[in-house]
Write a structure and sequence with these properties.
Elements lengths: L3 E7 L6 E6 L2 H9 L6 H4 L4 E8 L2 H13 L2 H11 L7 H4 L2 H11 L6
Antiparallel strand pairs: 1-2, 1-3
Length: about 110
């Protein structure tokens, strides 16, 4: 069975949180960065990866996503800060920096857009 990821994305000001699941984290984050998905992530410009868990199956990841979505906002931020105290964008840690820079230039994505 394939592994799965649960992840939390946010916008530049870190006031919107989006929780999702995928089996291909780097690809999914890049899709969010270029606005391929409509809805919440596009509307609130959730382009910054703040947290992720690598789980042993997509089914487990979906269950974890459901659990996290029931949590209070404060609990979610505490979880993020437990592994990412600076609440920084973790995208460069999962995507090659040169590829990310090229991707952002091609798609007109900047740190503030």
């Amino acid at each position: 069975m394939n592994s799965g990821f649960v992840y939390i994305m946010s916008n530049y000001s870190r006031n919107a949180l989006y929780i999702g699941t995928t089996s291909h984290l780097a690809e999914r984050v890049l899709q969010h960065r270029c606005g391929e998905f409509g809805g919440f992530t596009s509307k609130y410009k959730c382009k910054y990866l703040l947290y992720f868990e690598d789980l042993n199956s997509i089914i487990v990841a979906i269950e974890r996503e459901k659990q996290l979505k029931r949590w209070r906002r404060e609990w979610k931020y505490n979880l993020i800060k437990s592994v990412n105290p600076g609440v920084i964008d973790l995208t460069p840690s999962i995507v090659d920096y040169k590829s990310l820079r090229s991707f952002d230039e091609i798609n007109g994505t900047t740190n503030r857009s």
